[in-house]
Amino acid sequence: MSFVLVQVIVGGLLLGAVYALFSSGLTLVWGMMNIVNFAHGDFVMLGMYVAYVVYTLMGAGPILGAPLATLVLATVGVVVYFALIRGIMKGPMLAQILGTFGLALLLRYSVFWWFGANFLSMPQDIVGGTYAFAGLRLEASRLLAGVVALLVTLGLHLLLTRTSLGSKMLAVAEDQTAAQLMGIRPDTMQAIAWAIAAGATGLAGALIANFFYIVPTVGETLSIVAFVTVSLGGFGSVPGALVAGLLIGVIESLSGYLIGAIYKDIIVYILFLFFLWFRPQGLMGKS
Amino acid sequence: MRRLIWLSVVAAVAIAYPLLLSSPFQQRLGALVLLYAIAASAWNIVGGYAGQVSVGHVVFFGCGAYAAMGSYAKFGLSPLFGIPGGIVLAVGLAAIIGVPTLRLSGHYFSMATIAVAETMRLIVTNTDWLGAAVGLSGPAVPRNVFDLSFLSSLPYYYLFLVILAITLFITWWMTNSRMGFYLRAIKDSERAARSLGAPASRTKLYAYMLSAALTSVAGALYAMMFGFVDPESGLGILISVKILIMAALGGAGLLFGPLVGAAILVPLEEISNSWLGGKGAGLTFVVYGAIIVLIARFQPGGLLSLFTRRRKPASETGASHAP
Q1: Considering CB atoms only, which of A84, A94, A273 is closest to B115?
Q2: DSSP letter, residue B122
């Protein structure tokens, strides 16, 4: 295998880890509440803009930008849960789709209105330059994003499976009434899930802002990436999202390199339709 | 009887509007309201009555727009040929898209339609023959009435009014036919409908194809009125969004819901665009987003359901099925 190809695959894995990170938020909320957040990609977009604002105001890189973006988005998540999601969760499906779709438009075009439609970008060397080992050249910003995303995704998995908070959240996902009888407050757990899910998107956004183009409509593409990841990885499963995210990162990078950059999105969309075709009941297997 | 009186009033207002409010801006506004009302009413057949929330209807809108403008720009053919071409294209595509996607339930159908629409947009954006990102525009030849290309908005207004009336009539006729009853049963509970012997898949597919055909007519008319089509105006996801928001705001699954939604949102968009200039587009969609969130949260059946609720309690799906 040529070095270029290895380079492309490694690049895909690093980006895929970030996909896994923000998709794990979507899969968590989806699994717990059966709500599909159509604004999920726009949350990532907000994270990118928070990082950008932190940079322009204070000249700070991801050391400050990433925690701040995580915090801001976690807050957004809780607000969205109490102001919108709680009200539409048990409502008709049209209202569920409209609610989060409307939220996506609201966020996307508020940013558009404020920052304009221009592509923004962070300086190339905000995280450091480029490393070379064994013939591979890796940008520090991509390496940082990939490694941090991988660690946080694994951390999320541990949080859900090894802590009492995680067990409570899974209990609510399993059976809300039963959980309530055990003294767990579903409302609190669901709000925490939204904080975690949105916080993860904020972190992911801040991490990719260092090398991705920043534009108000980027969330649309990222939402679809998250849908594909969750469909492939299995609904509600964080480890599934991790594997699927990495795979999609690699597929995207390879098709971008082998077929052409404009076709990589098409490949992802077709892949998505292909997965749905084989799991028509939705991915949880019940109709 | 009461309904007949209301219908006559609405019809009289619609016919008199461009004669009473006759500035070019007002006439254009009226024509646009009707155009979007056609598209939203077409969406309503599958999104409102069948409860399948398609976010990819712009694909059919684009079929009409590209077929009409393409045959006009490439071959100098009148849109009177292009429009039927667009309908055939849209219905064929609806069958191809509908068979796999209509099996999906709820959110998954919506997500799949987004992916289809975005795929189409990306493909057309990279197809030189269809004008790629620049799009297609009509030839600069002397035009006649068969080109459906008029200087004033008045002829468009009445053309759209006739087509809206036809669309609403088809919708009304469908809701009172066997198909309409099947669709309502499917919307309430697809499993129950199936177990009672309703051919769910086939009925949904027919509704989807009918909806696609009417949406493509709206797309063709749009392209004729503006004289051009590009991937954003013909296949952009925002067109889908506008269409579905208009239907949902007025009342999805109600005959006049889409018209009410269009009559509120189109003036809102046009006026905010003309006041705010280039920056207005962003703000317009902020307002759109806020409106949708508020409807979803507080009035999921749409505005018209405020009036129909008294007669009939809102079902679990949020929208009652009158009239």
Answers
A1: A273
A2: H
What are A138's strand-pairing partners? Answer: A131
For this complex, say whether ipTM is above 0.95: no
Residue written as tokens 């009304």? Answer: B172
Residues in contact with B234: Cβ distance below 8 Å, sequence separation at least 6, in sequence order:
B58, B61, B62, B65, B66, B124, B135, B219, B223
Coil, strand, or helix at residue B43? Answer: helix
Work out the number of other CB atoms within 10 angstroms of the CB of residue B177. Answer: 11
- The per-residue pLDDT for range B58-91, each reduced to its tens digit, is 999 999 999 999 988 888 788 888 999 999 999 9
Say which residues have a Cβ less than 8 Å from residue B194's Cβ, sequence separation at least 6.
B200
Cα(A160)–Cα(A77) distance, rounded to whole angstroms?
Answer: 18
Q: Which segments of chain A does DSSP mark as H helices, in order?
A: 3-33, 40-58, 62-80, 86-88, 93-115, 140-162, 164-174, 176-181, 186-209, 218-233, 238-258, 263-278
Query: What are the phi and psi torsion angles at B197 (to 5°)?
Result: 95, 10
pLDDT digits (tens, 9 = 90+) for B148-184: 777 788 889 999 999 999 999 999 999 999 888 888 8
C-alpha distances (whole Å) from B70 to each of A254, B88, B121, B127, B312 are 35, 14, 16, 13, 47
Place of tokens 């969750």: A230
For tokens 């990170």, name the residue: A21
Decide if A231 contacts A241 (C-beta within 8 A). no
Instruction: Report chain B residues whose CB lies below 8 A from the CB of A104.
Output: 289
The structure's pTM equals 0.86
Q: Which chain B residues in 76-95 lie under 8 Å from chain A, judged by CB atoms?
A: none
- Interface check for A92 against chain B (CB to CB < 8 A): the answer is yes
Phi, psi dihedral angles at B169 (to 5 degrees): -65, -45
Nearest to A264 by CA among A273, A251, A247, A280: A251
The answer to whether residue B123 neighbours chain A at the CB level (below 8 Å) is yes
